[in-house]
Amino acid sequence: MNGLRAQRFAGLAQNVLECAKVAAANSPNSGLQETSPSLRPIMRGQMKSCKIFSVVAAVLAFALLASAQQEKIKVIADQDSGGPQGTNFLSLLMLLRSPQIDLLGITTVSGDQWVDPATVFALWATELTGRTDVPVIKGAQDPLIHTKHEQEILESLYGSYVGWHGSLNPDAPPPNFVWTPPGGMPKVKARPGRAADFIIDTIRANPGEVVLYCAGPLTNIALAVRMDPGIVPLTKAIYIMGGSSSGGPELNWWWDPEAAAIVLREPWKKIVVSPFEVGFKVMSSRQLMQRVVDAGGPLANHVKQMYLDFQPPPGTTLWSAMWDELLVASLLDPSVITRSETMYLDVDIDHGPKYGDTVLWIPPKKVPTFFLPYSGPGGPDEAKWRGHLVPPVQLHPATVQMDVDVQKFEDIFIKVMSH
């Protein structure tokens, strides 16, 4: 409940208390019943007014309480929504089913799969959850600059340094190849228009209220902020699954390094990053999916068919780190993250052997110490070192998730999936 609602409740409570005092004074057991006859009409008028006010106050208090309970987190989900299994798809199901989320729209982007199949599976997710009121808007197919041809050249020079290339895998299907979800192609269609335009228009229609949930490459977000930089201060927060808390490659930022660099260099009010390392601390499993099925709910049969009954093709597995689901859980309940660190994050865009790697600057907890003969007779000058140890001017502090309460995460996942 926000401060304004709290003030309103306090005011109502004070007025109701005053009325209660008047009522007590006029009760049959009160000695004030012996009041002069000339004052009794006045006190009866007070009683009548208080009764009316009490009814009105009760109605208003109930309305304010209901409004507070219904207040939801407004979210735009930007997602490379491959399916029908996997972290991308499960996180969409969580967002679509959570009673805490007001999902304003899903914008799709290439990453783990190309944007065409990602859009199909996002549409299918809205049908599966009974949420076809949530619009799906197709986004960028290709990175801003990075290409499969350039990647092949870099790997011929420096070797392959990312095992999973997503839609840039050497055996990836062509961009226009789409396969049918279980049960058939979705009947609902994507909303006409471009993802970047939808992001801009939606943030401007809800200034200071929208959380950007970004669980794929950041191409759509980069396009939006380049088209309209004014949306950055109007965004409540940006939650990003991507990057590495130790530096190095990670698919979402590696797939479109320039887009990630653009987004990370913008002065967002709040940046929360869930790097790929922390996602490995919460793994999907047959046992976890059995708990979802046992809990019941409208998605129980889907989970049973897709995870308990389904036999994956040779060379594949159904079980993985729950990267995107963890980002959703942390949005719903920040306490699921037990440790975070402030970091300044960037991406290498030099088109060399580290192209696409996460670059990080971590605020030092203390000034460095040195071997005495190299320090001079006075030792290090702390004030000068403090003035020197500053973050890069183009970067902004991000809250980087480092550790997770696994039990709490699983409880949140099961609760939302069975809602």
Structural features, described:
This protein is α/β, with parallel strands linked by helices and 419 residues long. The protein folds into two domains: 3-69; 73-417, Ribonucleoside hydrolase-like (Inosine-uridine Nucleoside N-ribohydrolase, Chain A, Alpha-Beta Complex), CATH 3.90.245. Helix content is 43%, strand content 13%. It has 16 helices and nine strands. The protein has helices spanning 3-25, 40-70, 87-97, 115-128, 148-158, 195-205, 219-227, 251-255, 257-264, 276-279, 286-295, 300-308, 323-332, 372-375, 382-388, 406-417, and strands at 73-79, 101-108, 136-137, 210-214, 237-241, 271-274, 337-347, 358-361, 397-404. A nine-stranded mixed beta sheet has the order 3-2-1-4-5-6-9-7-8, sandwiched between helices. The longest helix has 31 residues, at 40-70. The radius of gyration is 28 Å and the shape is globular. Residues 1-6, 27-35 and 52-69 have low confidence and may be disordered.
